[in-house]
Amino acid sequence: MKCPVCNKSMIILEHEGIEIDYCTRCKGSWFDSGELALLLHDELRHEESLEPALLKKGARSCPRCGKRMRYGNFPNTKVEIDVCPVDRGIWLDKGELQAIAKAQGVSESMQRVQVFLHNVFGSQIEGEKEA
Ligand SMILES: [Zn+2]
Ligand SMILES: [Zn+2]
User: Fold this and answer.
1) Rounded to the nearest 10 degrees, how much is the dihedral formed by the CA atoms of 10, 68, 60, 6?
2) Residue 82: predicted pLDDT
3) Among 33, 57, 114, 130, which residue is least crowded by beta carbons within 10 Å?
């Protein structure tokens, strides 16, 4: 899959059953429908909506199906996310995952996100420093 921002081929990262497509150039990441919910919530809260209440037409195309994505604020935050209206995948720019976890104020999800980022991006961040 190509990054919707810089069109570079993304790499697939996996952690505890959650698979994301990650762009090493702009550090954005793509979550298929439901994957972000898995990361942020425990099982009982899967059905909680993670979609912005108000969606505006955006300029980026969905890396999965090519349809024009919409954008809006992640619920209860000021973080603007891109959502595909067809397959409900979510695109997060660099730093937005951390911002969402922080804004949610749930230490448990913050912790989960930190472990996720460490396990998934840790080796890469170190690799970049070495390079
Ligand atoms: Zn990119
Ligand atoms: Zn799509």
Assistant:
1) 30
2) 96
3) 130
